[in-house]
Amino acid sequence: PGMAASHRYCFEWSQVAAGSPAVRGGVTLAWSDFPAQLSAASALVNDLDLLVVCNGGTGSRDSARSTHWGNGAGIPDRANTVEQVVLTGHEASGAVAVEGVFCEAWVRARVLPEGPQPYSLVIHGPNLAMRPTCRPSAGGCSQPGHAIEASAGSDCV
């Protein structure tokens, strides 16, 4: 499967219990680009962007949203074929994990002269649950996991 315009992947992951070590999760996008012409201004032919949008952990899409572009910049990465967003778990105030943080990972084609563009997307983190309906669950993460690989065919709209 290849990239057409944009794909969305949704997931939730739990914050950690009080006193637990800091926990990280992340989303990594990688693709093999077509070769650029020697006279091209940029070595990147197909430009995909990774955007991760998360809520503040209340189980609602609209509360305290945070936006993360690939490779930690405040703008889309225009130079690399591997982009990553690192998500840091916040310590919960109680003795148990709090509701899951609902996130949407977007893979967008900014420039795609040579398409379709196959890519790999890896989403990893503690107590991870993929949400194929792209809706937050009522009770946070209910299906713990470790590393999940998604393909372009598993996007949801």
Strand order of the largest sheet: 4-3-6-1-8
Q: What structural class is derived from the secondary structure elements?
A: mainly beta
What's the quaternary structure here?
single chain
Morphology call: elongated
Mean pLDDT: 73
List the secondary-structure elements in sequence, H or E.
Answer: EEEEEEEEE
Beta-strand segment tally: 9
Radius of gyration: 17 Å
| Biggest sheet record | 5 strands, antiparallel
Helix content: under 10%
* Low-pLDDT windows of residues: 58-62, 91-97, 138-157
Supply the number of helical segments.
0
**How much of the polypeptide forms β-strand, as a percent range?**
35-45%
Kindly report how far apart the N and C termini lie.
Answer: 17 Å
Task: Give a summary of the structure in a few sentences.
With 157 residues, the protein is mostly beta strands. It has no helices and 9 strands.
Features:
mainly beta, 5-stranded antiparallel β-sheet, 9 strands, elongated, disordered C terminus
Strand and helix map with partners:
Blueprint: E1 6-14, E2 24-30, E3 47-54, E4 66-69, E5 82-88, E6 100-111, E7 120-124, E8 129-130, E9 147-150
Antiparallel strand pairs: 1-6, 1-8, 2-5, 2-7, 3-4, 3-6, 7-9
